[in-house]
Automatic annotation (TrEMBL):
Name this polypeptide is given: Hydrolase
Record has Metal-binding as a keyword: yes
Gene3D superfamilies reported for this sequence: Fumarylacetoacetase-like, C-terminal domain
Keywords carried by this UniProt record: Hydrolase, Metal-binding
GO biological process per UniProt: small molecule metabolic process
Entry's family note: Belongs to the FAH family.
Entry's Gene Ontology molecular function annotations: hydrolase activity; metal ion binding
Domain of life: Bacteria
Domain Fumarylacetoacetase-like C-terminal: 68-302
A Pfam family the protein falls into: FAA_hydrolase
InterPro entries in the cross-refs: FAH, Fumarylacetoacetase-like_C, Fumarylacetoacetase_C_sf
């Protein structure tokens, strides 16, 4: 049921926008639909029942999604934290001493931000679940990890978009938790093929989205939002989107030079510092993950063990 949410109350959009309307169909026609939504919000929903948001199970806001573009290593402190975690494990596989590794990493991050390009890969929509659904931990992974992220929803098509025009393509924003099986990323037989993103990122339920899709006009500056994630009540991630190496506009511009972005596409903008790999703690069955981003609501997911089919 597509709903518009106001002050913790939800209103069914179908009596006003048509029986066949969905959030996805609204995004597909975002330029014309947004004024209709704003008018409904301003004038109220006379004659229709209101629902308590807390009584509803939020499904993923977009069904189906378009392409899922995922930015890797896009927060400065996140990269530095992963480096420190490798040092704590005594991982010297890169052949560098600790001091050299830290200095080289800082110089590389500075160079990437100044002259480089974002690193973006594609994900599977089959990993998507809702903001309160269970997260199934794969039986063959010992290092399932959280990665709370700002998710961008595209509302207009674009190809080779300039950075200064890129935010005009955004319909709105969501919360995304782009979970990772850390021990599935690196493969001994990969060599120059690099990271196995399929195995590390796309397990079923590894991408809770929502609970809300908030129009960009009501979010403000996407580089001035606060991201907080807690596991079992302990805060693990607590960072600003200002720590991104490449901001939302830069990510959209870059992606549009490689591919065409279309309405319904989702861009995951990278995760800030505080992942499990940095803390030396990974998810276990029974763990409760709670995540918030300024103005975008709250996710609460319980982790469960994978059972044999």
């Amino acid at each position: 049921m597509p709903c518009l949410v106001l002050d913790e109350r939800a209103y069914d959009l179908r009596p006003f926008l048509g029986a066949d309307v969905s959030i996805r169909s609204i995004v597909d026609e975002w330029t014309t639909r947004l004024p209709e939504l704003q008018k409904l919000a301003d004038e109220g929903f006379t004659g229709t029942a209101e629902l308590r948001l807390a009584d509803l199970r939020p499904l993923p806001p977009l069904q189906p999604t378009g392409q899922i573009f995922q930015a890797a290593a896009n927060y400065r402190q996140h990269v530095l934290d992963l480096l420190s975690a490798a040092e704590d494990r005594g991982d010297t596989s890169d052949g560098l001493a600790d001091g050299d590794r830290r200095q080289n990493t800082r110089e590389l991050l500075d160079a990437r931000a100044a002259e480089g390009r974002p690193f973006v890969f594609l994900g599977s929509s089959h990993a998507i679940v809702g903001a309160t659904d269970e997260i199934t931990l794969p039986s063959d992974s010992q290092q399932p990890d959280w990665e709370l992220e700002l998710a961008v929803v595209i509302g207009r098509s674009g190809r080779r978009v300039a950075v200064e025009d890129a935010l005009d393509l955004v319909a709105g924003y969501m919360i995304g938790n782009d979970l990772t099986a850390r021990d599935a990323l690196a493969r001994w037989d990969a060599g120059v093929l690099g990271i196995d993103w399929l195995a590390g990122k796309n397990s079923p339920s590894f991408l809770p989205l929502g609970p809300l899709l908030v129009p960009a006009v009501h979010v403000g500056d996407p580089q001035d939002l606060h991201i907080v994630l807690a596991v079992n009540g302990t805060t693990m991630q607590n960072e600003s989107t200002s720590d991104m190496l490449f901001g939302v506009a830069q990510l959209i511009a870059h992606i549009s030079t490689v591919a065409e972005v279309r309405p319904g596409d989702v861009i995951l903008t990278g995760s800030p510092a505080g992942n499990g790999a940095a803390h030396g703690v990974f998810l276990q069955p029974g763990d409760v993950i709670e995540g918030t981003i300024t103005g975008l609501g709250t996710q609460r997911n319980v982790c469960v063990a994978e059972t044999a089919r």
